[in-house]
Each structure stands twice: as structure tokens, then as C-alpha cells.
Amino acid sequence: MNDTILLTEQKDGVTLITLNRPEVMNAFNFALLHALAAKIADIRFDPDVRVIIITGAGDRAFCSGADLKERATLSPVQVKKYIFTIRNLFTAIEQLNKPVIAAVNGVALGGGTELALASDIRIAAESASMGLTETRLAIIPGAGGTQRLPRLVGKGKAKELIFTGRSIGAAEASQIGLVNQVCAPERLMETCRQMAAEICETGPVAIEQAKYAINYGMETDLSTGLAIESNAYWVCIPTQDRLEGLAAFKEKRKPVYKGC
Q1: Residue 1 CB coordination number (10 Å)
Q2: Per-residue model confidence as pLDDT tens for the chain (260 residues)
Q3: Are residues 189 and 239 in the same domain?
């Protein structure tokens, strides 16, 4: 496997992951899927990583989805294996115990948009475009798009975008709630790092439990969701970080959280 197919950089509690196949618009082949899955698995148990930013190499594409040249060589069984692999990878990203920010720096089609959907926060460059275009290839989104998009933008808008297979610009993506923020391309990474830095000021255990409560609570009724929130809160109570937060507030200083 090409060791440079996935680039990583860690600084100040933030890990930047860059899909590095710019010659094919950072499309996912099996090698890139496996490399990203391995990195996500490592990050889960790394206490020094507080936030993850995922972006694409170059200024043309975040990720154009599946590598269709590779796809054309796959048997039907291998295609099933690919879909199984990418779906499980994006679920692992969604369920990661740390916040994930998608820095959408250009074209994000098919699996590229599905990767952004699996992230917690999406920040797009003004030049970005997004879309689940699979129906134009006589298939459907297979890495969670039919489920995550309607939960984010509503069933009607999701059906419109998936049925037509059209892509939309960053401004429209922001208007319908597909992305959190839009900024100038040259400010994209700065904007993502600024948000990551704000998150890093908070309690690690609290962030993990808040993400857990939101993700799982949204999939059930309010009463059950409140019970999930209550149990997640109980996890925070015996932590040293909670006491540190109270002490820092009393002493009018910034807290120093250790994730325990």
C-alpha cells in the first residue's frame, strides 16, 4: 500500500487527516479505505487527540467518492465487499468518541458527501460542491447517505437531491443545513482549526458523553433520549475534570482538563 495515500499531522490536540489522491480527486479505493479505517481505530484510543479534521489534498476536491476505475474491475462480490467496508468505516467515524470536522475544500460527491455526513461538523469552502449523485450511475448511496442526509436536511430535500442526483454549491448547502459554515477557500483550514481549538478548551469526557447522548438520543423517543442524557451526565460527575472546572470558575482562571 502507498504509505502517502493518507497524510496525518498532529498538533495541539488536533489530528489533521488528508485524503491524498489528488490525481483522482481523492477518490476512495480499497487502499485508502483501509488506511483511513486503521487511522480512525488508532485515534479512538489516543488520549492526546481531542479533535479530528478530515480534508482532501489539493484545491479541487474533498473526495469525489468511489474510484470508478477500480470499481469497473471489481466483481459483484467485490463491490459488495467495498460497500460493506466503506459503510462500516463511516459508521466508525460517526461513532468515534471524539469530534470530527469535515473541511470540505472542493468537490464532494457520492462517498465524499457521505464522509462529510458521517462527520460531526461540516465547514465548506465557498468553492465546494456536494451531492449524492449515485442514481446517475443507476445505483443508490451505499455508505449511509440515504439515512444521514434526511436526518440532517429533512426527508423531502434529501429525496429531491438523491432522486435528481444533482450537486449543490456551498451556499445552498449552508442554506439547507448540510454544512455548518462556509468560508473563503484560503481561510478554510484556519476556520476549522479555530473551531477545533475551541473544542479543545472543553472537558474531554464531557465531549465524549455529549456526542454519545446526541447520536443515540436522536434515534429514539424523547423520554428514552432524556434517559440516555441522564446516564451520560452521570459519567461526568465522578471525574477530576468536573472538579477542575468548578475550581477554575471559582478562581477565575482557565481550567486544565486531563480527560479523567
Answers
A1: 11
A2: 456 999 999 999 999 999 999 999 999 999 999 999 999 999 999 999 999 999 999 989 999 999 989 989 999 999 999 999 999 999 999 999 999 999 999 999 999 999 999 999 999 999 999 999 999 999 999 999 999 999 999 999 999 999 999 999 999 999 999 999 999 999 999 999 999 999 999 999 999 999 999 999 999 999 999 999 999 999 999 999 999 999 999 999 999 999 88
A3: no
- Pair type for strands 6-11 and 14-19: antiparallel
Residue 210, domain CATH: 1.10.12.10
Sign of CA dihedral 132, 137, 143, 146: positive
Is 190 catalytic? The answer is no
Active site residue 134: yes
Task: Tell me if residue 114 is catalytic.
Answer: yes
Tell whether 51 and 161 lie within a shared domain. Answer: yes
Work out how many domains the chain is built from and give that number: 2
Given 35, 57, 66, 206, the catalytic residue: 66
- Whole-angstrom Cα Rg for the chain: 19
Same domain, 76 and 161: yes
Q: 0.85 cut: is pTM over it?
A: yes
Q: Which range marks the domain in which residue 194 is found? A: 6-200
Last residue of some domain: 179, 200, 221? 200
Is residue 39 included in any domain, yes or no?
A: yes
Annotated active-site residue 142? The verdict is: no
Q: Which residues of 193-208 are buried (b: 16+ CB within 10 A; e: fewer)?
A: bebbeebbebbbbbbb
Q: Single out the catalytic residue among 134, 145, 213, 245.
A: 134
Task: Write down the catalytic residue from 111, 145, 203, 245.
Answer: 111
Annotated catalytic residue within 27, 102, 114, 170: 114
Same domain, 151 and 235: no
Same domain as 155, residue 121: yes
CATH, residue 84:
3.90.226.10
Measured over the CA atoms of residue 24, residue 18, residue 85 and residue 149, the dihedral's sign is negative
